[in-house]
Amino acid sequence: MQDTTLRIASYNIRKARGLDNKRMPERTLQVINSLDADIIVVQEADKRLGRRPPAIPRDMIAAETDLTLLEVDENSESLGWHGNAILLRASLKGGDVQRIPLPGLEPRGAVAMTLDIGLGVRVVATHLGLMRRDRRAQLDVLRDATQEEGHTVIAGDFNEWSNRRGLEPLAGRFNVHAPGRSFHARRPVAALDRIAISHGIEMRDGGVEEGRLAKRASDHLPVWADIAVPKRPATC
């Protein structure tokens, strides 16, 4: 039985404000298009104040990409929830959306959805806190929230500088991949952006988008991974 291969990417877009301090959503979308991903989890997709208006206009996403925005917030204005948004290739559908509040000193959250392609893949988009003790508690919540799920992918800005510490809550069920150094975009020294895949999913390839635009569009570089998800066995 053949596996299904998907490309999933994660990108902290810094509210579409580049290193030149110019807010240029069209530039951000050019970078997103260059990833050629089936699923893109986006962090800092909305501005911070008021009703958290989107950093990228919805009509611009529709006009300049072949991606669709998964509706995850309650106000039908923001692109995401706690800044976490999910973009899907137009041929894909996501459902069973869940908003997961995360503990810590700062307001944080995650968004989960099931990819409706007969594989039962649960995708979680998150942006973890700045303090390790908060990140560990947040990963505890995400692990528990997906405990009863099948194949699961947790992707986002993990904010963890260490390659050896801080990700212990995911051990045993997930393999955590850092496709490369993604921060700071001007001179990448840390692999803050990661993709965790549950056992049974295979990592085929991965990397960091280091093109000219990506190095200017945000303080993070986008990361991507090609994963192979086993198909569910047929039922009689």
Task: Please supply descriptive tags for the structure shown above.
six-stranded mixed beta sheet; 12 strands; 4 helices; 236 residues; alpha+beta; Deoxyribonuclease I, Chain A; globular
Describe the structure in your own words.
This protein has 236 residues and is α+β, with helices and mostly antiparallel strands. It has one domain (4-229): 4-Layer Sandwich (Deoxyribonuclease I, Chain A). It has helices at 25-34, 58-64, 132-145, 214-217, and strands at 4-12, 39-43, 67-69, 85-89, 94-102, 108-115, 121-127, 152-157, 174-177, 193-198, 202-208, 223-229. The strands form two sheets. Strands 3-4-2-1-12-11 form a six-stranded mixed sheet, with helices on one face. Helix 1 links the parallel strand 1 and strand 2.
Quick rundown:
The chain has 236 residues and is α+β, with helices and mostly antiparallel strands. It has four helices and twelve strands, in the order E-H-E-H-E-E-E-E-E-H-E-E-E-E-H-E.
CATH superfamily: Endonuclease/exonuclease/phosphatase
Order of helices and strands: EHEHEEEEEHEEEEHE
Going by helix content, strand content and strand pairing, the class is: alpha+beta
Total of helices: 4
Give me the secondary-structure topology:
Layout: E1 4-12, H1 25-34, E2 39-43, H2 58-64, E3 67-69, E4 85-89, E5 94-102, E6 108-115, E7 121-127, H3 132-145, E8 152-157, E9 174-177, E10 193-198, E11 202-208, H4 214-217, E12 223-229
Parallel strand pairs: 1-2, 7-8
Antiparallel strand pairs: 1-12, 2-4, 3-4, 5-6, 6-7, 8-10, 9-10, 11-12
